[in-house]
Amino acid sequence: MADVNRGNRPLSPHLQVYRLPIPAVTSILTRITGHALVAGIVLLVWWLVAAVSSPGAFAAADWVLRSWLGFLVMTASAWALWFHALSGVRHLFYDNGLGLEIENAKRASWGIIIGSVVLTILSLIIFFVS
Amino acid sequence: MRYITPRKAASGLGSARSGTTHHWNITMSSYALVILTPLFLIAVGGAIGLSQPEVVAHFGRPFPGIITALFVIVGMLHFIKGSQGGAIADYVHGTAQQLTMVAIAIFGWGVIAAAIFALAKMAFTIIAI
């Protein structure tokens, strides 16, 4: 078959060589953050239940929550929560037919990434200052 | 004469089955969570680092107690729906899919029950600080 455009065709994308567009990255991250938030809520609810169980149980949960591991989980959870929330708000806009143009979706994706980091840092500052 | 239209025979047999209800559930809970999320961060952020009696007293107060309860309930129901329909239905199939969905529901409701138990106990605890 004669092909007039043999040299200038897009290459068949393979998952391992395909560079994901930024809206695809934020879409996948929304699912991942939604599921990863399980770690944060389990840690917090364990801490709440321990607080009404016994001084020993609370001491253990509180030690974990305030350890470097707990700090890591809570900080990561705060970021995941802000990211998932911002991305969820974008979905509410999408549902109403707003922001669906590719350029807007790209811009909103960067807004979600940068916004979630800024809000996480703000949350940490407010937590440690107040 | 049959009054049933062909729509009746086709209803619910699309590829998504009950997808619109599911989507509506997620949408409604996400509206609630947009409001609850910042309030929850304030309620919980103010309690981390307190002693045990102070934590009990903190969540025994109306604002932190009610916000935390609402966030855990709405959040976990949002998670159950989102995980079952948004992720598991895409990647797991057959018996494994059903078992995974049951496991998610048990886990989600377990977290809700544990949180409500703890918060209720705190609400009914009178501590002199």
Automatic annotation (TrEMBL), chain A:
Keywords per UniProt: Heme, Iron, Membrane, Metal-binding, Transmembrane, Transmembrane helix
Record function comment: Membrane-anchoring subunit of succinate dehydrogenase (SDH).
Keyword hit for Transmembrane: yes
Protein name: Succinate dehydrogenase cytochrome b556 subunit
Biological process according to GO: tricarboxylic acid cycle
Family statement: Belongs to the cytochrome b560 family.
GO cellular component: membrane
Kinase is among the record's keywords: no
Subcellular location field: Membrane
Necessary cofactors: heme
Pfam families: Sdh_cyt
Comment on bound cofactor: The heme is bound between the two transmembrane subunits.
Family annotation (PROSITE patterns): SDH_CYT_2 (PS01001)
Membrane topology annotation: Multi-pass membrane protein
Main location: membrane
GO MF annotation, one: metal ion binding
Transmembrane segments annotated in the record for this chain: 28-48, 68-89, 110-129
Quaternary assembly: Part of an enzyme complex containing four subunits: a flavoprotein, an iron-sulfur protein, plus two membrane-anchoring proteins, SdhC and SdhD. The complex can form homotrimers.
Binding sites annotated in the UniProt record for heme: 84
UniProtKB/TrEMBL annotation, chain B:
InterPro entries cross-referenced by the UniProt entry: SQR/QFR_C/D, SuccDH_FuR_B_TM-su
Species this protein is from: Paracoccus gahaiensis
Cofactors required: heme
Gene3D superfamilies for the chain: Fumarate reductase/succinate dehydrogenase, transmembrane subunit (1.20.1300.10)
Protein name: Succinate dehydrogenase
Subcellular location(s) of the protein: Membrane
Function: Membrane-anchoring subunit of succinate dehydrogenase (SDH).
Pfam family, one: Sdh_cyt
Keywords carried by this UniProt record: Heme, Iron, Membrane, Metal-binding, Transmembrane, Transmembrane helix
Chain segments annotated as transmembrane: 31-50, 62-80, 100-120
Lineage of the species this protein comes from: Bacteria, Pseudomonadati, Pseudomonadota, Alphaproteobacteria, Rhodobacterales
Gene Ontology MF term list: metal ion binding
Main location: membrane
Any GO CC annotation of this UniProt entry: membrane
